[in-house]
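Hi P.,

Sorry for the delay on this. The queue was packed all week, but I finally got your sequence through. Input first:
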Amino acid sequence: MSVPAPVPHLQRSLRRFDIMAMGVAAVISFNVIGQIATGGGQAVIWIAVIAVAFLVPYALVFAETGAAFPQEGGPYVWVEVAFGRPAAVLTTMFYWVTNPVWLGGSLVFVAAGAWDGFVLPLGSGTVADYAFKLVFIWAAILTAVVSLRRGKWITTAGAGAKVLAPAFFTGTAVAYGIQHGFRGLQGTGFSPTGVGFLALVPVLLFAFVGFEAPNAAGDEMLAPQRDVPVASGVSGAIATCCYLLPVLAILSAAPPGRVTGVGGFMDAARLVFGIYGDWRGPLLTFVALLFVVALLTQGSAWMIVADRMQAMAAADGGFFSRGLGAFHPRLGTPVRMNLLSGVTATVFMAAAMNLA
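Then the structure:
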């Protein structure tokens, strides 16, 4: 069995709570909640089905591999041990490249839309719009550059935002329904259909992936054999609730046909927050800020783990120069790989702004 050589300069700083928070920050995707809710009542059924049929075995598999092979690089090491270096290198390349493209794509555009609509106007294609997106991208990269001992608190704050915002929204939607009736649920069909399966299951599979992500920092965990399985179980339960409850809340509050794929969560918040009277505006701004912070820290979490995986592949003689696999001696992070991700995300964002 061949595994990459241990990385020098790494500090073991990830406890069970940190692993769980990183999993929550990586997995929960606010930008797909509205898209899931467009499926209507059957979205609730498919969330429950995917949670049982996919999430549970998926989490169990990676709880086992993460505890048995806790080396830095996580999934890269697992694939290399099972199938050899070429398969591991190709897998890791595909795993990594989606993340800077996503950071400079839908993630930053949804964040800018929320900021523009609920915090401060940015416009489209303006200097302010470009500035916001550049700051968003490079703030996520900076979080990955700093030492994990400090950067983990940023992803932990993001995990807190991802739990707080849905909880507050769900409670408000219940209060709104008590006052005005749960009109959105009237006539909503909960029976699963083939069309619903084709529309929702791919999105839900994307929404529930990522519990293997913290294992990319395996050599920075204090007790992976003990902590990874528990953290995977807790973060999986939190993720299921953070998808299921907001979708139910959106469906109960928004009239049929009013749910949109991109703005579903914030549009529904605009509606139900009417029960707060004059506090509606400030509370919407507060939730929008939580929404943006959650998106930012999700990008940060994926940059932290995906860049580590790709750096381990580069250091092991895979794609890119071995120099991109170097970890900073003081920070213990793959700074060169982080910067490459930042440049990739920036180029993709600029292309999307000018071509799409």
